[in-house]
Amino acid sequence: ALYLGNNQLIIAGIGGNPSHGEAFVVNLNNMMNYTQLKLGRFFQNGSIYTIGYNGTTLMFGGDNYIGGNLHTCLVADNGGSLHNLSYKLGSDNSLGQIWSVTWYNGYWLIGGNTFIYLSNGEGVLLPMLVKEFSNGSTVNLSPSLPSYFTPVGGGFIDSIYDLSPSSTGVGIAGANAFNATFAVYNGTFQNFSVKGYDEGSFVSSAFSPQGWIAVGELYESDHFSPYVVLFHNGTSNNVTIPYHVGFVTSVIYINGTYILSLKVPFTSSSSLKYGTVILYGKSLQELKVLYKNGNQVIEDMSVSGNYITAVGYTNDTTVEGLILKIHI
């Protein structure tokens, strides 16, 4: 989800039959008042995972199926004029997915993964990071990523899941087969040593006065655990939160408050299913429950004027899209 101002929120995902990527502009004062953007033809049999905005252009990233293969898909909306920019990613990045797009310091950053066939017919999934300047020229930053994003001796299931802009640079959150991965880019890469990271993945990050916070999931022997790491003055410290099973799907820091959305199991009719918990607090060490619902799953949060908007889906008798307005 992306807030445009004037109580307008853009949401995106997958829908339709046959399925395709969809995006809508929603009026937060009246959520039944929305406009569908005509993007489905670009994201056929695929999905839209991310939206970026630079004040004039909306950038949508995701994937589509062409000839039985999953391809990266990048589409720009310039005041209603749609342009397929997927070719700008280069032939090496044709197969794969775009998980995150952001505008920072006069250029776009596009992150995700790329699938490459090896000579033996097998394939590997590698992290993708492409920089596009306002004049349309592009630079493939993937080879310049810190070495721990693609570790020697394996790890060929790698991806970048989130790009979070801040005053100090763009947080790059992801994972490989061995570890969660994190770095910051501000024209050059600021390395955050992989040493000490646990086996897991980072899917969201935010900058705060305490340092960078990266969140996601930790791979245990028989379950997933919420994973929160604080990077401060060259150190990385795992943060313990009040839940021990599930995932952290998103993190925000705003006006001195930390907000984390979690996907955790709930008991329902003697069975387990995933629901949502939203935690908040002035300190990562003192988080309290702000919202809790066993019939909803929150996948992402964004700052929307005086609100936090949380988007996801309901998982009761039917699955439907969900938008929550949260007052802090």
Structure commentary:
- By secondary structure, this protein is mainly β.
- Helices cover 0% and strands 63% of the residues.
- It contains no helices and 27 strands.
- The protein has strands spanning 2-5, 8-15, 20-27, 30-37, 47-53, 57-66, 69-78, 81-84, 96-104, 107-117, 123-133, 138-140, 159-165, 170-175, 180-185, 189-191, 200-208, 211-219, 224-232, 235-238, 247-254, 257-268, 271-281, 288-293, 296-304, 307-314, 321-326.
- A four-stranded antiparallel beta sheet has the order 1-2-3-4, with no helix packed on it. It has a four-stranded antiparallel beta sheet with strand order 5-6-7-8, with no helix packed on it. It has a four-stranded antiparallel beta sheet with strand order 9-10-11-12, with no helix packed on it.
- A hairpin with a 5-residue loop joins strand 10 (107-117) and strand 11.
- 43% of the residues are buried.
- The mean pLDDT is 90.
Class from helix and strand fractions: mainly beta
**Count of helices?**
0
What is the strand arrangement across the widest sheet?
1-2-3-4
Largest sheet geometry: 4 strands, antiparallel
Mean pLDDT: 90
What form results from the Cα inertia axes? globular
Uncertain spans, ≥5 residues at pLDDT below 50? none
Quaternary state reads single chain
Distance between the termini: 18 Å
Strand content: over 45%
Helix content, binned percent:
under 10%
The strand count comes to 27
Give the SSE order as H and E letters: EEEEEEEEEEEEEEEEEEEEEEEEEEE
Taking Cα atoms only, what radius of gyration do you get, to the nearest Å?
Answer: 19 Å
